[in-house]
Design brief:
Elements: H1 3-19, H2 25-36, H3 39-43, E1 63-69, E2 72-76, H4 79-85, H5 89-96, H6 106-110, H7 114-127, E3 148-150, H8 157-161
Helix pairs in contact: 2-7, 4-7, 5-7
The structure holds heme C (HEC).
């Protein structure tokens, strides 16, 4: 192989590597969106409790605390692993916009621009895999074997009477 061809291939390899690297503006935008979009509140262990003082290496790696309500039990999944299983940004758009169980605010992702959703994907891909898979969701009536929070609206009689 001649030197010109070799250096051309090297340049191409560097350009490809750059597409997913951390100083990519899309990655930076994705980091910003997950930070201000509240994703860490549910998907990162200890984030809300520590006021956001969790090392970025652990961001969005899932929380095995069940959210139990009329929908059954859901778990804030490991987004770092989910993004690894989705190999194109187009596939991610459809995946991220699908309806989900509460309390996932999925309508926020549905209404997000393609560019912003793709930035979140770029961020998750560049962060790479971390942690393990969260427990599968349970249907209503099944008791979780993990710790869980029960979402049951309480209505004291004095409020009920005033309706
Ligand atoms: C109030 C808690 C909460 C917040 C805030 C939240 N999520 Fe979720 N998310 C969940 C739960 C719980 C599930 C699992 C839903 C289910 O089982 O259907 C989930 C599921 C998902 C899924 C689909 C499952 C998967 O693993 O890929 C995606 C994608 C996702 N969330 C992305 C986000 C992003 C991006 C943000 C921030 C913009 C966010 N979530 C904010 C609780 C939350």
């Amino acid at each position: 192989m001649n030197t010109t061809l070799k250096s051309l291939m090297l340049t191409l390899a560097m350009l490809t590597a750059h597409a997913a690297c951390a100083d990519d503006p899309a990655v930076e935008r994705g980091r910003y969106l997950v930070k201000i979009g509240g994703c860490n509140d549910c998907h990162t262990p200890g984030y809300a409790q520590s006021g956001g003082k969790v090392p970025e290496a652990q961001w969005l790696s899932g929380v095995p605390l069940g959210f139990n309500g009329p929908w059954g039990t859901s778990y804030a999944s490991n987004l770092r692993l989910s993004a690894q299983n989705i190999t194109s940004a187009e596939q991610w758009l459809a995946y991220a916009r699908a309806p989900r169980r509460p309390p996932m605010p999925w309508f926020g992702l549905r209404d997000m621009s393609d560019a912003d959703l793709k930035a979140i994907y770029a961020y998750l891909r560049s962060a790479g895999p971390a942690g393990s898979a969260m427990p599968a969701a349970l249907p209503p009536g099944k008791t979780p074997t993990t710790p869980y929070i029960v979402f049951v609206p309480q209505e004291p009689a004095k409020f009920a009477a005033s309706r």
